[in-house]
Amino acid sequence: MTQFSTPGPMGAELAGVLAAAVSAENRVNDVLCDHLTTEMMEAQTPGGGMTVAQHLAHMAESTRFWLSQLDEGTALSLPVLYDETQTDAFIAQDDPLRAAAVLREVWTAALNTATAATAPGDLPHPSPAQFVLHMLGHTSYHRGQIALALKVSGFPLPDEGRMWGPMRGSV
User: Fold this and answer.
1) Are 127 and 113 in contact (CB under 8 A)?
2) What is the residue range of 121's domain?
3) What's the CATH number where 124 sits?
4) Per-residue pLDDT at 8 exceeds 60
């Protein structure tokens, strides 16, 4: 299990709740990415939307971007899931296991940084805790988009119990 840093100014109770939520987030992302194949990574949301790979890359990058508003040094040291050399296209990598590892690293850094923060930095959120909550909601939305892309492309969905169990407190 990922170890998170000692709670800072946000308080131990709130830090514990957020740590549990991020731990569940990581387990759900692991289940999703473990289910995916390289072929599934190319499934696209209807209407010319993002591919599964692009959704995963966006989930990591948007969390990394907002984290940079709290601690730029921490955020810039994190890996990305897209080709940074392509300035005219969003080319996401297609390895689901790497996606799981990158998402876990980004989330661990986001939680540890937010938990230790004494102020919101340049975040548009009133507190670092609200930044974490916002990103949890954001990534949940994109997992729904991934499920839609898989379903309309004829791919099986991850096992519902394994996928949502971590959010319900199951192991």
Assistant:
1) no
2) 12-168
3) 1.20.120.450
4) no
